[in-house]
Amino acid sequence: NILVIGASGQIGTELTLKLRELHGNAAVIASDIREGSEELMSSGPFEIANAMDFDAIEKLVGHYNIEVVYLMAAMLSATGEKVPMKAWALNMDSLFNVLNLAKDKKIKKVFWPSSIAVFGPSTPKEQTPQTTVMEPTTVYGISKQTGERWCSYYHKKYGVDVRSIRYPGIISYKTLPGGGTTDYAVEIFHEAMQNGKYTSFLSEETELPMMFMDDAIKATIDIMDAPSEAIKVRSSYNLSAMSFTPKILAEEVKRHLPEFEMNYEPDFRQDIADTWPSSIDDAEARADWNWSHNFNISELTDAMFTGIKSQLVSK
Ligand code: VAH
Known about the structure:
Layout: E1 2-5, H1 10-23, E2 28-32, H2 38-42, E3 46-48, H3 54-63, E4 68-71, H4 77-82, H5 84-103, E5 109-111, E6 114-115, H6 139-158, E7 161-163, E8 165-167, E9 169-171, H7 184-195, E10 197-200, E11 208-212, H8 213-225, E12 237-238, E13 242-244, H9 246-256, E14 261-264, H10 268-273, H11 283-289, H12 297-314
Helix pairs in contact: 1-8, 5-6, 7-9, 9-12
Bound molecules: (3R)-3-hydroxy-L-norvaline (VAH).
């Protein structure tokens, strides 16, 4: 069976639903420290558990005969800056808990997400290579960079089959992101459709790598399904679909809502965004496990409008 830790979050929710579609509802156990969406809770097993509590996670693994764990619990970049020690504890303890279960052969395979936040101001900004300078400035980025080193270490030293992707900003409509720097690209759609305007906390020319949720889920499942020998990078793979600025996204929104009004009031999150790449070279993911993306910016925009509309109707 499969265990998703952090299943109530933005990516965890949709990942769990997709895994249930592929493997059957009973085979995919969702867990989180808080309850999730109605769809998540009602479609299969759900357990409240703290990712930092080794005994609780070990118990779940034993009880449900878990072989594969997706560790999606984390504190994101913006929230992490407000409570640095808490972010560090959550992001590292949860990873060690899962890596140690794999080291002790209690589980067979682990997915753990990294992020473009591992990069920093000294990293080449355009087409950032897989292997390059990494001097992250946020607690979140430091935790992901450190986590990457530990994944690589557990693979080499203990043969742990851990696989990882450096997600860009993920855009989706089912569950809101929690406390990231790329959240503007989700908020803009909800605000546009409900109020016709949005004030962005990033400046109009801030270009960041982004991806539609369906592609992020596809990448996650693809890398986990690939044969072990194909996974040559055991820290984390660069992954890319598109890059855009708030201004370009606002133009896309205007295709659907010509009256849409965008304003800009950069806050502390601007300083974080300024340290991140504007585009990513993901040639190794494409070569090693055949990664390819489906959604570009206009397809993403159309999908967001359709998705949010159907949610508003059903409310
Ligand atoms: C954040 N979305 O903004 C996350 C992230 C791409 C960066 O991992 O913190």
